[in-house]
Design brief:
CATH architecture: 3-Layer(aba) Sandwich
GO molecular function: oxidoreductase activity
Shape: globular
Family: Belongs to the short-chain dehydrogenases/reductases (SDR) family.
CATH class: Alpha Beta
Number of strands: 7
Strand content: 5-15%
Largest sheet: 7 strands, parallel
Radius of gyration: 18 Å
Structural class: alpha/beta
Keywords: Oxidoreductase
Number of domains: 1
CATH superfamily: NAD(P)-binding Rossmann-like Domain
Protein name: SDR family oxidoreductase
Mean pLDDT: 90
Number of helices: 9
Pfam families: adh_short_C2
Order of helices and strands: EHEHEHEHEHEHHHEH
């Protein structure tokens, strides 16, 4: 079983920070051509700093992933640099709290636009290019792989993050739906739902609330927080030929956290 992504070209959104940045960097280190995409140009520059400004395998693109023009320009940037795209990892996420019953500060529309529609629209653009690339490819050739990064909020909604929870659940359903649409074209679409991963955001949260660490460990049967590379490894698997017969699936990487009854967890 080959898990190699060496020589493949990947677009990773949300790559300026956190989990997206970890996945993009992980892919470069394993020989992929990677376009780091994010709305924050300063964070993108920092994310690719370790690879050098002249690295032929790295490009960065700053733009709002919820805008069609930015999506089209991102694809153009990728094709100009590498002439093709084999992998798309939709990691871009926006998390905003709101009062669920206060319509004046409701974040539902913004969450759906940023966390659902941006990924779906980019998938549509990239899939069309993948299909075109495969027109003269051998019958056994795998056309492409798309992975959407989701959250436990998709299955276990958080009241103060209702918009984010709804958008996360919708993204997982979109993953399944697009998997069916694109299966005849040999494009696989899967998702990764994660639990507690030692991202930049979590590190910041633990500094502000040190007691959060004990709560996480107690609520995770494996008793630890995952390293960001462990999530990247799961994404690499889904993008590799080792997962060539896997599509429409949501892979949960949470150390067993979703298996645990939260009430029982307090009794352990």
């Amino acid at each position: 079983m080959s898990l190699s992504i060496h020589g493949k070209t990947a677009i990773v959104t949300g790559a300026g920070r956190g989990i997206g940045r970890s996945i993009a960097q992980y892919f470069v280190e394993r020989g992929a051509n990677v376009v780091f995409a994010d709305g924050d140009e300063a964070s993108l520059e920092q994310a690719v700093l370790d690879f050098g400004a002249d690295n032929p395998h790295v490009r960065r693109f700053a733009g709002n992933m919820a805008e069609r023009l930015s999506i089209a320009n991102l694809l153009s940037t990728t094709l100009d640099a590498f002439d093709r795209v084999d992998i798309l990892v939709n990691t871009h996420r926006l998390v905003k709290a709101s009062e669920p019953l206060d319509t004046e500060v409701d974040t539902l529309e913004e969450m759906l636009r940023q966390n659902l529609l941006a990924g779906v629209r980019l998938t549509q653009f990239v899939a069309k290019r993948m299909i075109k690339q495969a027109e003269n490819a051998p019958e056994s050739h795998q056309t492409g792989a798309i992975v959407n990064i989701s959250s436990m909020a998709a299955d276990r909604p958080v009241p103060t993050l209702l918009g984010y929870s709804i958008a996360s659940a919708a993204l997982e359903q979109a993953t399944r739906g697009m998997a069916l649409v694109l299966a005849p074209h040999k494009i696989r679409v899967n998702g990764v739902r994660f639990g507690s991963v030692m991202s930049h955001e979590l590190q910041t949260g633990l500094k502000e609330k040190p007691e959060l660490r004990d709560q996480i460990l107690k609520g995770t049967p494996m008793g630890r927080i995952a390293a960001s590379d462990e999530l990247a490894e799961a994404v690499q698997y889904l993008c590799s030929d080792g997962a060539r017969f896997v599509t429409g699936q949501i892979l949960t990487v949470d150390g067993g956290r979703s298996l645990l009854d939260p009430v029982m967890a307090q009794l352990l």
